[in-house]
Amino acid sequence: MLRKALLVAVSVGLMAATGSAQSSNKTALKPGAKVFINSMPDSFDMFLKSALSKKKVPLTIVDSKEKADLEMTGTSETQKAGAAKKIFMGSWQSDEQATISVADLKSGEIVFAYSVNKKNSAHGKQSTAEACAVHIKDELEKTK
Amino acid sequence: MLQRTLVSVVVVLSSATLWSSQTPSNGVRDESDTRIQAAARLYIAPIEGGYDIYLAAAMHKKEVPVVLVTDKSKADFELSGVTESEKAGWAKTIFLASTATNEQASIKIVNLKTGTIVFGYNVNKSNSARGKQSSSEACAKHLKEKIEAR
User: What is the pTM of this model?
Assistant: First the structure.
């Protein structure tokens, strides 16, 4: 009887100890969560807001960090086609790269991050922003 | 009998709790220990050009077994680095028909408790297929190898 009780106690103790070290860090990224989008270089945040809306990502965008569960930060870079590319490659399209990360404001953990690089981007920043939105949506669908 | 059992349960539970609270989440104390344990909490310091966010994305993509945090005080390790991009000039565009950039980056990871540098890595990519994304994924891949090799 005593041995059984001790075994149970040890198991419970060990489970509690390991459980606290491996807490799930993806709980905040769920459909309906409130996200605050930080300002980004070249107003990439505006493109992201439009893309999230266009791709029907199930997140609520809020205008202040205090009201939010998640915070999105990111950066974007555009390399416009130079004269050489236009003349010799016949391409006016820009090369785009962008990256975003989403942090849980309560735990301070980064719950999602994504980067995209598009050569000869068909729609410039819009293309990279929509790629980010699609991947957030995929991640949210995984949590369902 | 029941009292003894209860006392034993309480003693075992409290010692387990004490043990878990005294052991740091990364399990590292010794200064000469350069291991990075899986599930260690890593803070990425801001890097010029938002390269820290590229690194976070790369770690997410390559499934590096660390927990990324935005607050240094909650972290076991700190990653800092530097990066440089060289865009293709007109000569490269015309004669090599390539608009790909040349990328180089360097990162280091410091154990915040001991102050020891536990990991360092440099990457240089000529004609980088995906710019900063390529160099950051190289860093993430090598960090993952380091953690998994222990």
Answer: 0.78
